[in-house]
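so i finally got all the pieces together for this one. its two components total, 624 residues if u count the protein bits. some of the lines might not be protein, just check the labels. i wanna see the whole assembly predicted at once instead of chain by chain like last time, that was a mess tbh
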Amino acid sequence: MADTASADERITTQSFTTRLMKRPELGAIGGVVLVTLFFLVTASPAMFTFAGIMNFLTPAAQLGILGIAAAMLMIGGEFDLSIGSMVAFAGMIFGVLVVNMGLPLIFAIPLTMGFAAVVGAVNGAIVLRTGLPSFIVTLAFLFILRGASLVGLKLFTNGSTQLRGVREAVAGDWLTPVFSGDAFGPLFRWMADQGWIASLNSGAPSVPGIPVEILWFLAIAAAATFVLLRMPAGNWIFATGGDRNAASNSGVPVRRVKISLFMLTACAAALVAIITVIDTGSTDARRGFMKEFEAIIAAVIGGCLLTGGYGSAIGAFFGAIIFGMVTIGLTYTGFDQDWFQVFLGAMLLLAVVFNNAIRKRVTGER
Amino acid sequence: MSDPIIHMQGIKKHFGNVIALNGVTFDVRPGECHCLLGDNGAGKSTFIKTMSGVHKPTEGTITFEGRPMQFSSPRDAMEAGIATVFQDLAMIPLMSVTRNFFMGREPTKGRFLKRFDLDTANRITMEKMRAMGINLRAPDQAVGTLSGGERQTVAIARAVHFGAKVLILDEPTSALGVRQTSNVLATIARVRNQGVGVVFISHNVRHALAVGDRFTVLNRGQTLGTAERGQIDAAELQDLMAGGQELATLEGSLGGTV
């Protein structure tokens, strides 16, 4: 029996650093600090101006939306390699609905999301029904969806793999500003007039506003963190990924959790598709290429264990920011931009080694 | 002596042509620890799975609180108040004690958005664990950092907190060291004193004798009768478990210390 007197003493022995070490996102935050220091030294100061920050946060946001969903799925113990192809597939569906069928966004967006959710649910159902690793099942869908996007696009455009005219089709739709362009335009204009932020020669602010995908990114990171840490569903996700049998024996609806998570990653891919398609005005079959790996890398850098049951949405948030900083940051330096992939691989390796050490520490394994 | 909470009469269980249980009679009263002893392959696991709703008996009756009962799933049995702590404990090492304690049954707060009430959960976990004699460093301590005995205690405390009337413990001491075993046995005694009927499955006679009130021996799918505390000693129990034969030769070389 533990003696009563020792209880309080032991609380004090847990230092702030020890507690910090237990947070899964520590590695990613450390990574952001390191990468920032690296670019502060090597890159031109333009990178850390307001415009420069927006510049690297935009790709980070697009990847981050996928990365956070991938992180939640990984915590739940599964992978989804089909999210990159899902971006192309959902982009095609969305393009066809908007351009070919002329639907307003209020219908086109829920329909696109619905399509994606069904594909996600099919992914999940196959994984659960067959008991096969999700890695293989979603790898199959990586090809199926990519191929379906190519075939579908050719079908709807009479032979082209690109569908144009989205921007014209959505122009004037009251929902367009929610998914594209910059938010807080008037505020930025006013701040430029006041001389608080940099402006161009014409008097317009050099940063016209905050790109909406960054706001989506922030909102999704906050919502995912809230669900994971403060909702019963979050506990179920951790439990499902930690030990499926134990969770199921304790009354956690394991199947429902997994299927929902597959639907979530597919919907995140659809959201990225909608944002990027409206932004560029067209959709093509190569959209989202390799994004599944980048999203998983962001999740792993963010502290997710490949075995499931551990990780955080905030970690994936910072993982995606590291990604954006490195991709865009190298253009501000004298380095060859193709170092990017080397850098990425090294980050991934470092993150996995670090996460493994942390897990052993948390579980007291030796 | 009070009436049994659960009474299993003449339970038979066949898997195809394999007869796993061939007439088992067993009951548990509130506030007692009834030990079910048996060697490997005696049918202990099949029996507790029948009791906890995993298997349906091929023959025999189950009476729960005086009424005939048929459990169609482990959920059913759990809701009736039969909690089973299996050897794997249903604990997730990477998750905190609180999160494990309330896994699948999280307390919520908030009217519109049902949030996981972590403050309440933490407080209850600390209280329950203290009542079981374990002082956690913090409720967010990962279960992986606890010892085997402490994990067992968390699992028992969890079952009792969620209203177990019958607590089935599947070899709770089999993987533990001496000190941890004595802790778990003390926990069992504590739970029993709260009025819970404990079914203690073991093949270790000494552990059973330390906390048991009654002893039933299972051999080759059959019960060989139930003995009260004090009516039977370790040697007799061991003989019954082994079917009364092979052990006679072993006894000499091991000095009766199996």
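Residues 18 and 221 of chain B are 11 Å apart (CA to CA).
Chain B has a mean pLDDT of 85.
anyway lmk what u think
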